[in-house]
Amino acid sequence: xxxxxxxxxxxxxxxxxxxxxxxxxxxxxxxxxxxxxxxxxxxxxxxxxxxxxxxxxxxxxxxxxxxxxxxxxxxxxxxxxxxxxxxxxxxxxxxxxxxxxxxxxxxxxxxxxxxxxxxxxxxxxxxxxxxxxxxxxxxxxxxxxxxxxxxxxxxxxxxxxxxxxxxxxxxxxxxxxxxxxxxxxxxxxxxxxxxxxxxxxxxxxxxxxxxxxxxxxxxxxxxxxxxxxxxxxxxxxxxxxxxxxxxxxxxxxxxxxxxxxxxxxxxxxxxxxxxxxxxxxxxxxxxxxxxxxxxxxxxxxxxxxxxxxxxxxxxxxxx
Length: 319
Known about the structure:
This protein is an alpha/beta fold. It has two domains: 4-114 and 298-318, Nucleotidyltransferase, domain 5 (2-Layer Sandwich), CATH 3.30.420.40; 123-293, ATPase, nucleotide binding domain (Nucleotidyltransferase, domain 5, 2-Layer Sandwich). Helix content is 41%, strand content 22%. It has a five-stranded mixed β-sheet with strand order 3-2-1-4-8, sandwiched between helices. A five-stranded mixed β-sheet has the order 11-10-9-12-13, with helices on both faces.
Protein backbone atom coordinates (compact mmCIF):
# COMPACT_ATOMS: atom_id res chain seq x y z
CA UNK A 1 0.00 0.00 0.00
CA UNK A 2 1.31 3.42 -0.93
CA UNK A 3 0.90 6.92 0.45
CA UNK A 4 -2.51 7.93 1.83
CA UNK A 5 -4.17 11.28 2.46
CA UNK A 6 -6.13 11.72 5.67
CA UNK A 7 -8.57 14.63 5.98
CA UNK A 8 -10.23 15.66 9.24
CA UNK A 9 -13.17 17.96 8.48
CA UNK A 10 -14.06 20.21 11.41
CA UNK A 11 -16.45 23.06 11.91
CA UNK A 12 -13.62 25.62 11.95
CA UNK A 13 -10.64 23.98 10.26
CA UNK A 14 -9.74 21.21 7.85
CA UNK A 15 -6.70 19.19 8.90
CA UNK A 16 -5.09 17.31 6.00
CA UNK A 17 -2.04 15.07 6.07
CA UNK A 18 -0.06 12.66 3.92
CA UNK A 19 0.59 9.43 5.78
CA UNK A 20 2.39 6.16 5.25
CA UNK A 21 0.51 2.89 5.67
CA UNK A 22 2.19 2.68 9.10
CA UNK A 23 0.36 5.85 10.13
CA UNK A 24 3.44 8.10 10.05
CA UNK A 25 2.56 11.70 9.24
CA UNK A 26 4.72 12.87 6.33
CA UNK A 27 3.25 16.35 5.85
CA UNK A 28 0.38 18.30 7.35
CA UNK A 29 -1.66 21.42 6.63
CA UNK A 30 -4.45 23.32 8.36
CA UNK A 31 -6.99 25.06 6.11
CA UNK A 32 -10.10 27.06 7.10
CA UNK A 33 -13.31 25.08 6.59
CA UNK A 34 -15.45 27.97 5.38
CA UNK A 35 -18.65 26.35 6.67
CA UNK A 36 -20.43 29.72 6.75
CA UNK A 37 -19.94 29.97 2.95
CA UNK A 38 -21.85 26.77 2.28
CA UNK A 39 -21.30 23.19 1.18
CA UNK A 40 -19.70 24.04 -2.16
CA UNK A 41 -16.98 26.16 -0.59
CA UNK A 42 -16.26 23.50 2.03
CA UNK A 43 -15.67 20.91 -0.68
CA UNK A 44 -13.46 23.34 -2.60
CA UNK A 45 -11.42 23.90 0.57
CA UNK A 46 -11.03 20.15 1.18
CA UNK A 47 -9.78 19.64 -2.38
CA UNK A 48 -7.44 22.63 -2.07
CA UNK A 49 -5.98 21.28 1.19
CA UNK A 50 -5.32 17.86 -0.33
CA UNK A 51 -3.68 19.44 -3.41
CA UNK A 52 -1.36 21.46 -1.17
CA UNK A 53 -0.11 18.41 0.74
CA UNK A 54 -0.09 16.09 -2.26
CA UNK A 55 1.98 18.27 -4.60
CA UNK A 56 3.50 15.86 -7.15
CA UNK A 57 3.20 12.72 -5.02
CA UNK A 58 1.04 9.76 -6.00
CA UNK A 59 -1.55 8.77 -3.41
CA UNK A 60 -3.38 5.45 -3.29
CA UNK A 61 -6.51 6.60 -1.48
CA UNK A 62 -8.05 9.38 0.61
CA UNK A 63 -9.79 8.97 3.93
CA UNK A 64 -12.14 11.73 5.10
CA UNK A 65 -13.70 11.97 8.53
CA UNK A 66 -16.53 14.36 9.31
CA UNK A 67 -18.75 15.14 12.29
CA UNK A 68 -22.36 14.06 12.10
CA UNK A 69 -24.26 11.06 10.81
CA UNK A 70 -22.41 9.58 7.86
CA UNK A 71 -23.67 7.09 5.30
CA UNK A 72 -20.36 5.31 4.78
CA UNK A 73 -21.63 3.23 1.86
CA UNK A 74 -22.88 6.20 -0.16
CA UNK A 75 -20.27 8.69 1.05
CA UNK A 76 -23.00 11.08 2.20
CA UNK A 77 -23.24 13.24 5.31
CA UNK A 78 -26.84 12.82 6.38
CA UNK A 79 -26.60 15.55 9.03
CA UNK A 80 -23.90 17.67 10.66
CA UNK A 81 -25.24 20.66 12.58
CA UNK A 82 -21.97 22.58 12.94
CA UNK A 83 -21.41 22.36 9.16
CA UNK A 84 -25.03 23.00 8.17
CA UNK A 85 -24.93 19.77 6.17
CA UNK A 86 -28.08 17.85 5.29
CA UNK A 87 -27.75 14.91 2.88
CA UNK A 88 -24.69 16.20 1.06
CA UNK A 89 -22.26 14.14 -1.01
CA UNK A 90 -18.74 14.08 0.44
CA UNK A 91 -17.08 11.26 -1.51
CA UNK A 92 -17.89 11.99 -5.16
CA UNK A 93 -16.43 15.53 -5.54
CA UNK A 94 -13.11 14.39 -4.05
CA UNK A 95 -12.96 11.25 -6.19
CA UNK A 96 -13.66 13.37 -9.24
CA UNK A 97 -10.84 15.74 -8.30
CA UNK A 98 -8.15 13.11 -7.65
CA UNK A 99 -9.28 9.92 -9.44
CA UNK A 100 -8.45 7.73 -6.42
CA UNK A 101 -10.77 5.87 -4.02
CA UNK A 102 -12.22 8.02 -1.24
CA UNK A 103 -13.59 6.58 2.01
CA UNK A 104 -15.77 8.59 4.40
CA UNK A 105 -16.43 8.01 8.09
CA UNK A 106 -17.75 9.74 11.21
CA UNK A 107 -14.94 11.59 12.98
CA UNK A 108 -15.07 9.73 16.31
CA UNK A 109 -15.34 6.36 14.58
CA UNK A 110 -12.31 7.30 12.50
CA UNK A 111 -10.36 8.36 15.58
CA UNK A 112 -11.23 5.02 17.20
CA UNK A 113 -9.91 3.15 14.15
CA UNK A 114 -6.73 5.21 14.21
CA UNK A 115 -6.19 4.68 17.92
CA UNK A 116 -6.88 0.97 17.51
CA UNK A 117 -4.57 0.47 14.53
CA UNK A 118 -1.73 2.85 15.42
CA UNK A 119 -2.19 4.04 19.03
CA UNK A 120 -2.90 2.65 22.47
CA UNK A 121 -5.40 0.11 21.14
CA UNK A 122 -2.89 -1.58 18.85
CA UNK A 123 -2.97 -5.35 19.37
CA UNK A 124 -6.47 -5.48 20.87
CA UNK A 125 -9.57 -6.97 19.26
CA UNK A 126 -12.15 -5.23 21.48
CA UNK A 127 -11.53 -1.55 22.04
CA UNK A 128 -13.50 1.60 22.89
CA UNK A 129 -12.38 5.18 22.37
CA UNK A 130 -14.24 7.94 24.22
CA UNK A 131 -13.63 11.53 23.13
CA UNK A 132 -14.42 14.31 25.58
CA UNK A 133 -14.90 17.48 23.54
CA UNK A 134 -17.75 19.93 23.10
CA UNK A 135 -19.84 16.76 23.22
CA UNK A 136 -18.98 13.21 24.21
CA UNK A 137 -18.55 10.63 21.47
CA UNK A 138 -17.34 7.04 21.24
CA UNK A 139 -16.16 4.53 18.68
CA UNK A 140 -16.33 0.80 19.33
CA UNK A 141 -14.20 -1.98 17.86
CA UNK A 142 -15.66 -5.44 18.52
CA UNK A 143 -13.88 -8.61 17.39
CA UNK A 144 -11.65 -6.49 15.18
CA UNK A 145 -14.46 -4.62 13.41
CA UNK A 146 -15.81 -1.11 13.81
CA UNK A 147 -19.47 -1.06 14.85
CA UNK A 148 -21.73 1.13 12.70
CA UNK A 149 -25.36 0.24 13.43
CA UNK A 150 -28.16 0.59 10.89
CA UNK A 151 -27.71 4.34 10.36
CA UNK A 152 -24.05 4.65 11.42
CA UNK A 153 -25.36 6.25 14.60
CA UNK A 154 -24.09 3.73 17.13
CA UNK A 155 -22.10 4.50 20.32
CA UNK A 156 -23.80 7.80 21.18
CA UNK A 157 -22.36 7.52 24.67
CA UNK A 158 -22.88 11.26 25.22
CA UNK A 159 -26.60 10.58 25.37
CA UNK A 160 -26.34 7.73 27.83
CA UNK A 161 -28.52 8.75 30.78
CA UNK A 162 -26.48 9.12 33.95
CA UNK A 163 -29.05 11.14 35.97
CA UNK A 164 -32.68 10.03 35.61
CA UNK A 165 -34.10 13.50 36.28
CA UNK A 166 -30.96 15.45 35.43
CA UNK A 167 -30.20 18.48 33.31
CA UNK A 168 -32.05 18.98 30.04
CA UNK A 169 -29.90 18.16 27.00
CA UNK A 170 -29.91 19.61 23.48
CA UNK A 171 -30.93 16.19 22.17
CA UNK A 172 -34.32 16.63 23.86
CA UNK A 173 -33.60 14.24 26.69
CA UNK A 174 -32.34 14.91 30.17
CA UNK A 175 -29.60 13.60 32.40
CA UNK A 176 -27.31 12.80 29.44
CA UNK A 177 -23.61 12.20 30.07
CA UNK A 178 -22.79 15.07 27.72
CA UNK A 179 -24.28 17.54 30.21
CA UNK A 180 -21.77 16.49 32.89
CA UNK A 181 -18.58 15.12 31.32
CA UNK A 182 -18.19 17.11 28.08
CA UNK A 183 -15.96 20.17 27.90
CA UNK A 184 -19.14 22.26 27.97
CA UNK A 185 -20.42 20.44 31.05
CA UNK A 186 -17.12 20.82 32.87
CA UNK A 187 -17.01 24.57 32.20
CA UNK A 188 -20.62 24.91 33.40
CA UNK A 189 -19.77 23.02 36.59
CA UNK A 190 -16.72 25.20 37.31
CA UNK A 191 -18.73 28.39 36.74
CA UNK A 192 -21.32 27.22 39.25
CA UNK A 193 -18.67 26.60 41.90
CA UNK A 194 -16.93 29.93 41.27
CA UNK A 195 -20.19 31.89 41.41
CA UNK A 196 -20.83 30.33 44.83
CA UNK A 197 -17.56 31.83 46.08
CA UNK A 198 -15.25 28.82 45.79
CA UNK A 199 -11.60 29.54 44.96
CA UNK A 200 -9.65 28.33 41.94
CA UNK A 201 -6.48 29.58 40.33
CA UNK A 202 -8.38 29.77 37.02
CA UNK A 203 -9.89 33.01 38.35
CA UNK A 204 -6.61 34.86 37.82
CA UNK A 205 -6.32 33.52 34.28
CA UNK A 206 -9.78 34.47 33.06
CA UNK A 207 -9.80 37.89 34.81
CA UNK A 208 -13.56 38.07 34.97
CA UNK A 209 -14.09 37.05 31.34
CA UNK A 210 -16.12 33.83 31.48
CA UNK A 211 -15.59 33.26 27.75
CA UNK A 212 -11.91 32.57 28.44
CA UNK A 213 -12.71 29.63 30.70
CA UNK A 214 -12.17 26.29 28.92
CA UNK A 215 -12.24 22.64 29.93
CA UNK A 216 -8.62 22.26 28.77
CA UNK A 217 -7.66 25.07 31.15
CA UNK A 218 -9.49 23.37 34.01
CA UNK A 219 -7.83 20.04 33.14
CA UNK A 220 -4.38 21.65 33.12
CA UNK A 221 -5.06 23.38 36.44
CA UNK A 222 -6.23 20.08 37.91
CA UNK A 223 -3.01 18.38 36.79
CA UNK A 224 -1.05 21.27 38.36
CA UNK A 225 -2.77 20.73 41.74
CA UNK A 226 -5.65 23.24 41.78
CA UNK A 227 -8.11 21.71 44.26
CA UNK A 228 -11.36 22.99 42.80
CA UNK A 229 -10.32 22.00 39.27
CA UNK A 230 -9.50 18.53 40.59
CA UNK A 231 -12.93 18.30 42.23
CA UNK A 232 -14.69 19.32 39.00
CA UNK A 233 -12.70 16.80 36.94
CA UNK A 234 -13.40 14.05 39.49
CA UNK A 235 -17.13 14.74 39.34
CA UNK A 236 -17.06 14.62 35.54
CA UNK A 237 -15.02 11.40 35.71
CA UNK A 238 -17.54 9.76 38.04
CA UNK A 239 -20.37 10.44 35.61
CA UNK A 240 -18.21 9.06 32.80
CA UNK A 241 -17.61 5.99 34.95
CA UNK A 242 -21.37 5.44 35.29
CA UNK A 243 -21.77 5.40 31.50
CA UNK A 244 -18.69 3.27 30.92
CA UNK A 245 -19.78 0.57 33.36
CA UNK A 246 -22.72 -0.04 31.04
CA UNK A 247 -20.44 -0.08 27.98
CA UNK A 248 -17.96 -2.42 29.68
CA UNK A 249 -20.71 -4.81 30.76
CA UNK A 250 -22.26 -4.74 27.28
CA UNK A 251 -19.21 -4.90 24.98
CA UNK A 252 -16.57 -6.58 27.19
CA UNK A 253 -13.64 -4.55 25.79
CA UNK A 254 -9.99 -5.18 26.55
CA UNK A 255 -9.29 -1.47 26.66
CA UNK A 256 -11.06 1.88 26.95
CA UNK A 257 -9.04 4.90 25.82
CA UNK A 258 -10.05 8.45 26.72
CA UNK A 259 -9.11 11.40 24.52
CA UNK A 260 -9.96 15.04 23.94
CA UNK A 261 -8.86 18.21 25.69
CA UNK A 262 -10.15 17.06 29.08
CA UNK A 263 -7.73 14.11 28.96
CA UNK A 264 -4.96 16.58 29.81
CA UNK A 265 -6.03 16.07 33.43
CA UNK A 266 -4.34 12.64 33.27
CA UNK A 267 -4.76 10.34 36.26
CA UNK A 268 -7.14 12.77 37.95
CA UNK A 269 -9.58 11.89 35.17
CA UNK A 270 -8.79 8.22 34.61
CA UNK A 271 -8.44 7.05 38.22
CA UNK A 272 -12.07 7.69 39.28
CA UNK A 273 -13.22 6.00 36.07
CA UNK A 274 -11.05 2.96 36.82
CA UNK A 275 -12.29 2.80 40.41
CA UNK A 276 -15.95 3.03 39.41
CA UNK A 277 -15.61 0.32 36.77
CA UNK A 278 -13.69 -1.89 39.20
CA UNK A 279 -16.37 -1.54 41.89
CA UNK A 280 -19.52 -1.56 39.78
CA UNK A 281 -18.94 -3.53 36.57
CA UNK A 282 -19.44 -7.30 36.51
CA UNK A 283 -16.33 -9.08 37.76
CA UNK A 284 -15.25 -10.75 34.51
CA UNK A 285 -15.70 -7.60 32.42
CA UNK A 286 -14.04 -5.40 35.06
CA UNK A 287 -11.00 -7.68 35.20
CA UNK A 288 -10.71 -7.77 31.39
CA UNK A 289 -10.57 -4.03 30.79
CA UNK A 290 -7.86 -1.41 31.20
CA UNK A 291 -8.56 2.33 31.09
CA UNK A 292 -5.89 4.49 29.47
CA UNK A 293 -5.38 7.87 27.84
CA UNK A 294 -5.44 8.00 24.04
CA UNK A 295 -2.04 8.55 22.44
CA UNK A 296 -2.61 10.14 19.01
CA UNK A 297 -3.46 13.60 20.35
CA UNK A 298 -3.98 16.30 17.73
CA UNK A 299 -3.21 13.85 14.90
CA UNK A 300 -6.13 11.57 15.84
CA UNK A 301 -8.37 12.91 13.08
CA UNK A 302 -5.96 12.68 10.14
CA UNK A 303 -4.45 9.37 11.28
CA UNK A 304 -7.95 8.06 11.88
CA UNK A 305 -9.07 9.15 8.41
CA UNK A 306 -6.09 7.33 6.90
CA UNK A 307 -6.95 4.26 8.99
CA UNK A 308 -10.47 4.35 7.49
CA UNK A 309 -8.92 4.16 4.02
CA UNK A 310 -6.59 1.35 5.05
CA UNK A 311 -9.39 -0.73 6.62
CA UNK A 312 -11.69 -0.10 3.66
CA UNK A 313 -9.05 -1.13 1.10
CA UNK A 314 -8.23 -4.21 3.18
CA UNK A 315 -11.93 -5.17 3.30
CA UNK A 316 -12.30 -4.79 -0.48
CA UNK A 317 -9.19 -6.92 -1.10
CA UNK A 318 -10.49 -9.62 1.29
CA UNK A 319 -13.82 -9.93 -0.59
